[in-house]
Amino acid sequence: MDIHEYQAKELLAGFGVEVPRGGLAYSPEQAAYRAREIGGSTWVVKAQIHSGGRGKAGGVIVCHSENEVYDAADKLFGHRLVTEQTGAAGKVVYRVYVEGGVSIARELYLGLVLDRKEERVMVVASSAGGMEIEEISANEPDSLVRCVVEPAVGMQAFQARQIAFQLGIDPQLVNPAVETILGSYRAFEQLDATMVEINPLVVTTEGGIFALDAKMTFDDNALFRRPDVAELRDKSQEDPRETRAADRGLSYVGLEGNIGCIVNGAGLAMATMDMITQADGQPANFLDIGGGATPERVAKAFRLVMSDENVDAVLVNIFAGINRCDWVAEGVVQALERDPIDVPLVVRLAGTHVEEGRRILAESGLPIIHAKTLAEAADRAVKAVSNAPKVRKRNAPAKVADEGVPS
Ligand code: ADP
Ligand code: MG
User: Fold this and answer.
1) Which of 6, 109, 185, 252 is catalytic?
2) pLDDT digit string (tens) for 216-256?
3) Residue 103 CB contacts under 8 Å (≥ 6 apart), including other chains
4) 140 catalytic residue (yes or no)
5) When you count CB atoms within 10 A of the terminal residue's CB, does the N or C end of the chain come out lower?
6) Is 197 a catalytic residue?
7) Any idea which ligand is nearest the CA of 54?
8) What's the rounded Cα separation, in Å, for the pair 17 and 358?
9) Ligand 1: residue whose CA is nearest its atom 6
């Protein structure tokens, strides 16, 4: 789960990381009021969307008066911001964060990630902050500092000091830098994060150290024990299809194609997507309905897949090991009797009680296209799409260019 910059800053501040004064606003009036509360003569109005790269996309606006803050917020609210990370659909701005302007002397990078190969938390830092980490490692690989944390003892102060020295931080600023690095690590560990990124971490001309941007991602499987974190979820920033699936306990990832997939098992789901692609088709989604594919789950899966207007055919691919094909077949029949679908349906069943399953589907009288193998199923689904009349409504392309992105 991702959260917004202002939320990440609030969490990190609780662990001793210095952040500039700021306040959240849901309207231009509130934004101007926040600026007055913060004081000073320079403010930065920042679009709160779950994405980096907002600066380049016009989502970070420097202002020199309350009126400018009002106008900047007015421009951003309701605007669909398209960054390098959002994809063409962009993300809509419903909240802005107003922050005191900071005079920047140096921009650094600080990131904490889970290194799966090392099975450790890894701290990555660079003196070339402001850029994306991919750019840094491509353009300035020598600036990268890495430090692996031993989980049994946690991050040690000497490690944080070493990072600070390697970043070339002035001696009098080493202590606050160490506080920032250790605080970020504690936040990572104690909140079950999978990523903390402060980019840029800045040294100001007045000699302070601030997290000017912050990003945190959390382990979904640990949210049950972090209610304060779980509460920060903002569904407006998620793919609505994936949100619906998560709410129903299904593992779903929305894709760009038009063949909806209902599959049990993540591996089989991946293989199904591969076979569709090989047959010159495009999957509309990854969907793993899990091992116990009860009729209710199958019905939920159908509803979810059909809620995607781009779906022109559905492919059900079930390998029943623990499960039973006849139960799945009953699920399919029940689901379709309740909510008929208006696109071709290809079903491939294999495994336990397969004959019984096929008989149930055949006797149902439903217009199901049967397939014996996965290759055959993919092929038939692709053919069904190209033969079927296009009756379903297409998703309108995301509005991007015509909304006057502020620069
Ligand atoms: P993103 O990474 O999404 O582009 P950032 O929060 O990193 O957004 O902001 C982009 C840039 O804007 C920063 O690298 C920094 O140069 C500038 N900036 C952001 N916040 C402030 C601030 N409070 N004061 C001064 N400059 C800022
Ligand atoms: Mg940033």
Assistant:
1) 109
2) 999 999 999 999 999 999 988 988 878 888 777 788 888 98
3) 204, 205, 206
4) no
5) C
6) yes
7) 1
8) 61
9) 213
Give the bridge partners for 253, in sequence order.
286
d(CA 48, CA 129): 20
Distance 45 CA to ligand 2 centre (A): 14
CA distance 371 to 364: 16
> Terminus-to-terminus CA distance in the chain, angstroms?
29
Most ligand 1 atoms within 8 A of CB, residue of 9, 60, 136 to mutate: 60
| Predicted model pTM | 0.78
Per DSSP bridges, beta strands 251-254 and 91-92 are: unpaired
Residue 60 alpha carbon to ligand 1 centre in Å: 7
Which residues approach ligand 1 with their CB closer than 6 A? 20, 44, 46, 52-55, 60, 99, 101-102, 104, 107, 130, 199-200, 212-213
Q: Which atom of ligand 1 is nearest to the CA of 51?
A: 3
Q: For 175-216, what is each residue's pLDDT tens digit?
A: 999 999 999 999 999 999 999 999 999 999 999 999 999 999
Instruction: Please count the helices (runs of H) and the strands (runs of E) in the chain.
Output: 13, 18
Gap between the Cα atoms of 305 and 314, Å rounded: 8
Mean pLDDT in consecutive groups of 10 residues from the start of the chain, 407 residues: 97 98 97 97 97 95 98 97 89 96 96 94 93 84 92 95 96 96 98 97 96 96 96 90 80 91 92 96 91 77 90 93 86 89 94 94 93 95 84 46 36
CA 179 to ligand 1 center in whole angstroms: 21
Catalytic choice (99, 107, 197, 330): 197
* Amino acid code (one letter) for 172: Q
Residue 125 Cα to ligand 1 middle (Å): 17
* Residue in 129, 140, 142 with CA at minimum distance from that of residue 202: 129
Q: Are residues 71 and 43 in contact, defined by beta-carbon separation less than 8 angstroms?
A: no
Structure tokens, 93: 């701005």
Peptide bond into 397 cis (omega under 30): no
